[in-house]
Amino acid sequence: MPRRVPVERWTAEGPRPDDDWLAEEAPLEILIEHSFKDQRRTVSWGITLRTPGHDEELALGLLYSEGRIGAAGDVESVEALDAGRVRVALAAHVDLDLGRARAATAACGFCGSPDLPVTEALADKGFRVTWECLAGLSAKLEARQGQFQDTGAVHAAALFDAAGELVAVREDIGRHNAVDKLIGWALREGLTPLEQMGLLLSGRAGFELVHKAARAGIPFVVAIGAPTTLSVDLARSANVTLAGFLRPSKVNVYAGTWRLQESPVR
């Protein structure tokens, strides 16, 4: 939850005491219980900084995005041990590679990885969105960004359907965390792969976020901010529609234009 702190506001007229709301940032340790030499052991996978809340979803989404698990059946259980620790118990058949350590940052998508991940091209499952539905997404997201309205310090990500309705929204100080929380939610709900959903981002659409979307089967990514060269290249090779600079009156589509359709004439 946001925390209220004293602040001194300065203008040309001088200082004025006031209060301000700050986004909470705190470490989360992810513990993994897995099979090892016919025994069960629990190890620390690492620490990430995040906005507290939906921690179990974050752990699941992060493991899924990084290819450590591939389906809900790879997880026996997930539980928050306390305010700063989550334990994920993997199924016995899951082979866990602990060679790559996690870096303690909310802004890092592939910290510790020497190579960019390879993303397979998505098959076209028929997901389409009209311009009218897309144009209304930014206002709907803004209305559900409660922590951003309080603090101005968190990112948001949302899943939307073909009718332009927001199915789930998550906020976090880390844009990668917000997406991982969504993916973790979808895993727990049995919705993956998300072949009939789009991903809406409150900021820019970098390579890591497009990769997470493709990994989860999401065919359409639209951002309020800009894409990057790597994210556009990835979207084109992975058969993902990528749009940026979304506004109520316009949007730029950089890849997969066929999934965006003109609104029907009334």
In words, what does this structure look like?
This protein has helices at residues 55-65, 131-135, 137-143, 146-151, 175-188, 207-215, 229-238; strands spanning 3-11, 14-22, 26-36, 39-50, 75-82, 85-90, 129-130, 155-160, 166-172, 198-201, 220-223, 241-247, 250-255, 260-261. The termini are far apart. The chain has 266 residues and is an alpha/beta fold. The chain has a domain at 129-261: Cytidine Deaminase, domain 2. It contains 7 helices and 14 strands. The strands form 4 sheets. It has a 6-stranded mixed β-sheet. Strands 4-3-6-5 form a 4-stranded mixed β-sheet, covered by helices on one side.
CATH fold assignment of the domain at 129-261 = Cytidine Deaminase, domain 2
Average predicted local confidence, pLDDT: 91
Radius of gyration (CA) equals 20 Å
* Strand arrangement, major sheet: 9-8-10-11-12-13
Tell me the helix content. Answer: 10-25%
Low-confidence stretches: none
